[in-house]
Hints:
There is one protein chain. Helix 2 (35-48) runs antiparallel to helix 5 (156-171), helix 4 (106-137) crosses helix 7 and helix 5 crosses helix 6. The protein is built from seven helices and four strands, in the order H-H-E-H-H-E-H-E-E-H-H. A hairpin with a 6-residue loop joins strand 3 and strand 4 (187-188). A two-stranded antiparallel ribbon has the order 1-2. A two-stranded antiparallel ribbon has the order 3-4. It is 58% helix and 3% strand. It is mainly alpha-helical.
Amino acid sequence: MARQILPWRYCTKPGDTALNAQQLDQLSVQFALPAEDLAELSERLTWALGPHYRPRSIFRALEAGPKGETVFDEAMRELSKAHNHLEKAHLKLRSLSISTPVGEDRYQSRYQRLFGLLLRAIANIETVEEGFKEAKAAGMAAALRDLPVKGGVKDERRSMVCGEIIRFWDEMGRNVSYSTAPGTSERKGELIRFINAIVAFVTEPSAQLTGETIKDEITDMKRFLSIERRLTEQ
């Protein structure tokens, strides 16, 4: 089954937010989640739905052109360099003992948050590298965008939105999973309900994802979170 493409409500103007106060309160009551944490999720979704994030599909199922392959190889080398630089920065920061001014404990938590963002960046780039390598090994081809492209369009914005929601669910200590109804094979579960509750708020007109589409997004994100945790534990 093909994954869905939805009519996302983009956050393009100053002051636009993915979720308003009423929606945050509704989600807080329905899923027993702190409103202040949901407000942070709304900020992440605002970025995912903003104009600064412009989805780009790199791989297409078409015969590779030499220029496209060359550019792809160059991009892979740049990713590898970036990965190495981030790893070096991580090791240097780990060697430091950070102290904060008396009475300014918030800076310690801020440093820890920034350190976490660095680990996330390392996990992100490792996931990107592995994903591209797997796609290449599976027979996908890279082509320059000025060449004709055949095939369907992937809703990359959906993956961004679902990824942020699933990450948030995991951070709240909830179980990142779904269940399958016997007989119908319908995908069900609290996480699926949570994702669709938010999707309904950030689409216009309001829309829902199928359980099968959400199942695929959960599978992809669980793989990413596993890599991220492995890096954090090193």
